[in-house]
Amino acid sequence: MGFHAPLPTPVVFERAEPARPAWEYHTVVVDLREVDPLPADELTALGRDGWLLAGLFEDTRRARLHYHFVRAA
What we know:
single chain, 73 residues, mainly beta, 3-stranded antiparallel beta sheet, rod-shaped
């Protein structure tokens, strides 16, 4: 009885594109001449809905705050 090497295991490579997440965007603009910046409870409520604060821009010439939120769709 002779020695038989096992057959090599076939390997298959696929070119699969990684899944790209879909995003939703939401902007809240606050006029600081009329109201205060968003309070913590409103930011918390947005967070509970899945919104993540991605950026905050202060327009000092117009006294406005621009809150930019993002979440996975």
